[in-house]
Every structure is written in structure tokens, then in C-alpha cells.
Amino acid sequence: MKSKYILVILITAVIFSGCDTIKETYGKVKETLGKDKKIEMIREIPIFAVNTTLAIKGQINDYISLSGDIYSGSTVDVYSEAAGKVTQIYTAVGRSIRRGDRVAAIDPSRPGMTFRQSVATAPISGTVIAVPAQIGMTVSQAVPLIRISGGSGLEIRLNIAERFISKMAMNLPCEITLDAWPGEIFHGSVSEISPTVDPVSRTMEIRVTVTNTGSRLKQGMFAKVKIITERKNNIVKIPASSVIRRFGEEYVYVVEKDSSDPNFNIVKKRNIVPGILIDGVLEVQNGLAPDEEIVIRGQTLLDDGSRVNVIERIAQIGLN
Question: How far apart are CA 235 and CA 253, in angstroms?
Fold first, then answer.
């Protein structure tokens, strides 16, 4: 405050003195304050407003995002053993059926010849998903009567680009989302990998078995699938937006107390070794410890040692 008053006195004296030089005016002010008092001109240090967050220790998953349709894991068509006219259908779409249950009756009789009816039975247990046959229809042994989806097993058929083939392996975990069940994640795993690549599309087919909890997933639904190709635990991760890349360096600013004045915070430049980057979250292999406070907004104007005012501390933004 004293320096501000001194500056005011100096400026006022210069304006009204007319013949005095600044040096003479300064001498008069110094003489007024006392010869043995020192006048210090305090240089104002800029303080930058920033937002921060904490580097955290946790898990990060690398994945490939694909989409495809849901199919029944095993689908079986039921045929008649004899050609003839359908006289009875014992089931309907959506009904559960057991192996050996009757599904339809076919009369193989012809004009002048009467035969005993042939009864078609279910070869597997499951759910009836289609009934192509109708009463009164004439069928042969090559015409399906009904279609059965075996059990509750479902699978998703996906086509993966050739460049990702090296990352594929059996039993890789998968996270599945559907528009029909927003906000919910279903789980599955890679159950089949094609041994060949389509030379036209340059893709390879894989199949993902889905855990159909509560029988909520239906054949024909469209699903989005994340195949987890790499899972890292106990790593340090930060928002990728906090990293500055200049002159071949990659670094962040870490907030610390100013050793010369604990009332202020300063930032220290910290070079890091980045790892994998997934959905805006970056793995830090070296250079940063968990729970260190880093700048995520306002860092582009900073230099090593700049004073900062933390406007908002955002808890683990985008890292959960």
C-alpha cells in the first residue's frame, strides 16, 4: 500500500511542479518520508485462473467398437417325415417347447389311399421363433414346419476389419449396449473366429456369445459391442486434454504451494511418458503420481513457476 501512495505523490508532484524534474521530485518525497527510509517499487506478479483435477490410479481398457445383429445361438428347422397336407399345428410363435413335443400333424393320404397321420416332433428344446406351415398347406419333406431357437443362448455376428485381426482372441470379454435397454450394459465374450478373410470386404467374421439375463434380448435386435482387447490395472490416468505438446515434449502442470509465499499456488512443469489413449483418458507410464493435482483448463498460458488461482477443482473428470 505504501508504494501506491508514493507513486501517487510522485505523479502529483510532477504534474504541479512545472520546473522540477522527476529526480528532484523523488528527492523531495524521500526527504519528506525520511532520509533513512527506503522506497521499494513492487512489481506486480500475474496470477492465472485455472481448473484442476487429480491424477488417479485405476483401470483402463483398450477396445474395438463394432455393431451387429443378435442371432439365436442354435436355430433348428423342423421337417415332416412324410409329404402331405398339414392338418394340425400344436404350437405358436413365442411358446417354449421341449424336445419330443408335438409340433404339427401331416396327413399323407391320397385319393383312394388312406394313411395314418404323421406327427412331427421337436428335435431340441427352446422357443418357437417362426411357424411357416399353415393348416391346409401341402408340404414335402423339404419344407420347414416350424423354427426353434435353442435355449436362451444368443450370439452377435460381427465383421472386423483386417487391421484388427492381430488383436482378436477367443474368450475376449465384451460389453454390449442396445437402444432397447438404454443405460444398461450386457456382457459376453468372443466365442468363434472365422479362419478366413473375405477378399472383397477385407473383413473377418467373429461371433460373440451374449449372457441374456432375464431373457430381455431378442433375436434380430441391433447391438453395439466393445471388444476389450487390453485391460490395464493400477495405472495412473488423467484427462488427455490436460497434456501440452510442444517442441517434442509432452508435459502437464502440477499445482504446488509457492515456497516463497505459502499464500499462493504455483505450477511446476512435469514431463510425462504417455501410454494408451482411450475415450479422452490417457495412461501415464512415468512422470506423475496418483493424487497429484494437475491443471486441465487454462494451462496453455502458463510457464514453469507461474502463480495460479484455482477456480474449480473437478473431481476426476472423465476418468470413471
Answer: 19
Q: pTM of whole model > 0.70? A: no
Main-chain dihedrals φ then ψ at residue 3, nearest 5 degrees: -65, -35
Strand partners, 230: 62
Cα angle: 274, vertex 278, 282; to 5 degrees: 30
Q: Which residues of the chain have pLDDT under 70?
A: 1-43, 151-152, 316-320
Tell me, letter by letter, the H, E, C secondary structure of 278-314. Answer: ECCEEEEEECCCCCCEEEEECHHHCCCCCEEEEEEEC
Contact 266, 101 (CB under 8 A): no
> Do the Cβ atoms of 160 and 191 come closer than 8 Å?
no
Could you tell me whether strands 47-54 and 307-313 are parallel, antiparallel, or unpaired per DSSP bridges? parallel
Other Cβ atoms less than 10 A from the Cβ of 22: the count is 12
Task: Please name every residue paired with 166 in a beta bridge, in sequence order, or none if there are none.
Answer: none
266: Cβ contacts below 8 Å, ≥ 6 apart: 255, 256, 257, 258, 305, 306, 307, 308
Separation of alpha carbons 248 and 138, rounded Å:
77
Burial degree of 79 (CB within 10 A; 0-12, 13-18, 19+): middle
Q: Say how far apart CA 107 and CA 74 lie, in whole Å.
A: 29
Structural contact between residues 210 and 231, judged by C-beta atoms closer than 8 angstroms: no
CB neighbour class for 133 (10 Å; exposed up to 12, middle 13-18, buried from 19): buried
Phi and psi at 17, nearest 5°, equal: -80, -40
* Residue 317, pLDDT score: 47
- 246-300 residue pLDDT tens: 988 999 999 999 888 888 999 999 999 999 899 889 999 999 999 999 999 999 8
